[in-house]
Design brief:
It comes from Tranquillimonas rosea. With 129 residues, the protein is α+β, with helices and mostly antiparallel strands. The protein contains 3 helices and 5 strands; from the N terminus they run αββαβββα. The protein has a 5-stranded antiparallel sheet with strand order 1-2-4-3-5.
Amino acid sequence: MGRGTAVLVLMAGVAACAETTPPAEAPAPEYLGVQTRLLGGDLVNFLVEMRGASSAGDVTAYADCAAAQYARIRDYGFARRVRTNLDEEGGLWRGDAVYTVSPALPEGTRTIDADVVVAACREDGIPTV
């Protein structure tokens, strides 16, 4: 083994023993509020804002929590997400989501059982309305 190769092997060994800095933890989510707008009948719009979301799914979950609690306040047991528009700029996430609320399980695949979702939101530390 040549001298240059020996130095590289030695440096690689030293680098392997060096302390590594753990990756920085993601900031804790900040839930900045919900605006609720009744669009008519059982159609409701929720505007949510948050910082520290790890993905768009965090923002959608925040909107789901707001919709579930709103359904409970109205003495309805269910909600169904109709659409969600998301935007992120400079770490500030905004969600604009529309849901139907109803006393009976609505048709569709994006249905929310209000009691179950509100309990999960509390367990996960996500505020509701």
